[in-house]
Amino acid sequence: MKTWALFLFFLVPCVEAELCYNGGTFDGTKCICDEDLYYGPQCEFLVQETLNGTVTTSITSSALSGEISTSPTHPAGTRTTPHPTIPISTTSTAFTTTTSQLCYNGGIFEGTKCICDKDLYYGPKCEFLQDEISVTELSVTITVEARVRVTNREFKKSLEDLNSSYSREIHAQFKKQMKVVYGGVPGYRDVEILRMRNGSIIVEHKIISQVLIWNNEEIIPHIMEIITEAVIHALKNIHTEGECIEPSGPELCFVSLPNSILNANYSLNDTCKNISGVKYAEYYYPHITNGTVRCVSRCFSGIQDSINCFNGVCRVSEIGPHCICDNLDMFWYLNNYCQFPIQKIVLGLSLALAVFFVISIILVICLIEAKHKSKAKRKKSRKSWSDNADCDKMGQRNPVFPE
Ligand SMILES: *[C@@H]1O[C@H](CO)[C@@H](O)[C@H](O)[C@H]1NC(C)=O
Ligand SMILES: *[C@@H]1O[C@H](CO)[C@@H](O)[C@H](O)[C@H]1NC(C)=O
Ligand SMILES: *[C@@H]1O[C@H](CO)[C@@H](O)[C@H](O)[C@H]1NC(C)=O
Ligand SMILES: *[C@@H]1O[C@H](CO)[C@@H](O)[C@H](O)[C@H]1NC(C)=O
Ligand SMILES: *[C@@H]1O[C@H](CO)[C@@H](O)[C@H](O)[C@H]1NC(C)=O
Ligand SMILES: *[C@@H]1O[C@H](CO)[C@@H](O)[C@H](O)[C@H]1NC(C)=O
Ligand SMILES: *[C@@H]1O[C@H](CO)[C@@H](O)[C@H](O)[C@H]1NC(C)=O
């Protein structure tokens, strides 16, 4: 049994390496596919990107079939589980002749290479995104937290839960009236109730404004000040108590409170949403260097959660930031960050050594036993030679069984 466990242990990497289809290489934890053509955990799917090129036949996933076919890089018979694969032969001719003319992301093919939009993309096919993208405009979300008193509603316990029906009723009405009250606040978008307190009701809420400014971080505090001032101004004029003709009606009656502003803050979280299409937006976030905001990906070094690709390079593509490891033809890596390279030759060698070692041990055991037997045989010369044949059956030997 131990022999088999040992065998399996060494065999596992070999088996897994066979689990990438269509020429994908296994890097230790996942398959690295030829991204231009294939994707999926085992590179089993064809990229269906609409490419700007000369491909006329669109290849769809209906080309996937249940049959077991062997992709070019894998010798037949190594796979044990049937897997749907792409019948390559039917499509490869159409593809390989045109592959060189394909450019991603709006790149233009010019004779021999793709001309990319350099501010955003690079790579032989414009398939990679720059780690750092400059922006000219910032989309700044400014939130001001404030409070106001509503005089014509009774405070009930149910207002502590903002999801209660009474809360939601007040919320809806509050939003409606605040749209008018805060109409003069630059970039006003919305208002959200944060909590409600007893007295009659003190409504703490958040005013959300969004403004576009030139890329200069230093302006932001100034913009925040302007917006806070506008909120203070709006709340100063909110006294509707006397004008609440019908206090029991649907309209809320307001009275301003001293210290109406609780807090103000800003966020640039929308700034990088626009840079290179919705598709890539989530891979970028704002990073401020020397007062200028840039949209960076996790491939950008020098930020808190940048990716460290130990023996490789970091690239942003359609699948997001990831490491592309060096010398995949010679090494396996134990993780996605190209760490712990294992030379394929060494691995093969250690496997061979392990097998050799195991066989040697078995042989040594056999020899020792044979020696014992021959000693015994010399003592009882009548004993037949056939007992020594045990070593021929070493695979089936099981000492636990009572004879
Ligand atoms: C493809 O590239 C050509 C320029 O070579 C351009 O005129 C055309 O608009 C592009 N088509 C698409 C779908 O991007
Ligand atoms: C709200 O405050 C008033 C007066 O301070 C009190 O009588 C009432 O019980 C309070 N209501 C709740 C729900 O705590
Ligand atoms: C709020 O209540 C509705 C139903 O009344 C429920 O569907 C929703 O999940 C609740 N939301 C939260 C955040 O509790
Ligand atoms: C302002 O926002 C930042 C994150 O955007 C947060 O860390 C900080 O605590 C906020 N400040 C206040 C006063 O809410
Ligand atoms: C940006 O931040 C504001 C305030 O925190 C929030 O309301 C808004 O949903 C955020 N936008 C995105 C895209 O996360
Ligand atoms: C995206 O850019 C367009 C103009 O280029 C602008 O009108 C829009 O407000 C921007 N959206 C965001 C979320 O920044
Ligand atoms: C930021 O400013 C410092 C000096 O003030 C300079 O050394 C550095 O190169 C600047 N960085 C960028 C990205 O401009």
TrEMBL record:
What are the SEA domain coordinates in residue numbering? 140-250
- Bilayer-crossing residues are 345-370
Entry keyword set: Membrane, Signal, Transmembrane, Transmembrane helix
Give the start-end ranges of region Disordered: 65-90, 375-403
Q: Which domain of life is it from?
A: Eukaryota
List, as start-end ranges, the regions of compositional bias called Low complexity: 78-90
Signal sequence bounds: 1-17
Keyword Transmembrane helix listed: yes
Q: Which PANTHER family match?
A: MUCIN-17 (PTHR37999:SF2)
Protein name listed in UniProt:
Mucin-17-like
Q: What is the species of this protein?
A: Pantherophis guttatus
Organism lineage = Eukaryota, Metazoa, Chordata, Craniata, Vertebrata
